[in-house]
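Page 47, continued from p. 46.
Same chain as before, 208 aa.
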Amino acid sequence: MDAFVNIGEKSDIGEYVILGKDPVSLEKTLIIGANCKIRSHSVIYRGNDIGSGFQTGHGVMIRENNLIGDNVSVGTHSVVERENIIEDNVRIHSNCFIPEFVTIEERAWIGPSVTILNTLHPPCPGFSECAKGIVIGKGAKIGGNVTIGPHVRIGENAVIGFGSVVTRSIPENCVAYGNPARVAKKKSELKCVSSLRERPYDWEENDE
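Result:
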């Protein structure tokens, strides 16, 4: 075992996985909790602190110095850049791009092929400060193929429709969609078109 890698019990590491990749001689340990499943061809750098129950799809890239909670899942071919905070029970689907300095709060759901962009004027000499401030709130739902721009905050329990381009912050408990995305209604006003439930997300109300 690499001196810079610490893996918890009952974790399953797939073939061709690289753990503890050294980003310019970073002498920090990669910590991965118990009961994790790292699927083939994933690469996870040193300096990450990852909780229990973590899963990756195939070919996932996770750069250094991320703080990742328990029961987080990152889908196939997704990229998580450095210095992000990803809280408990977050689901990131396949082909997503998470840049630096993003906070994704607990139970947020990120659909496939979501792209988050953190800088307005690349390459900016003040990137490390200017790029900060993107937050995906607790329990937010981001539909597939959504693009989220710099300095945007998605409110707690907000829902973003698939294919949207989010250029400004969205309040909590709102539904927004379009290009650019605009608030259309409250989450409580959504209707279940399949008539399987009284309304979407009613199953979450006991948790909120």
